[in-house]
Amino acid sequence: MAQMTLTELTSLLRECAGEQEGVDLAGDVADVDFTDLGYDSLAVLQAAGIIERDHNIVLPDETVAEASTPGLLLEFVNASLSAGASS
Description:
The protein is 57% helix and 0% strand.
């Protein structure tokens, strides 16, 4: 199964919660805290819910809460995608 990219994730975040003025999501934001990008935990949970629905995976709320950056969230998402593909 294909892996989710940073570009796909930032596009989804824009759709869910918009983009804060002065924040460039097109840059390398993988290691930037979600709060510094203008996203609160609800925006991240909403994005995670859409990822779960669209990719038929389950991301535990605790795991999503631990993902403080887009890079960490992608690690969790892609690990779940890989685990689902090998099942």
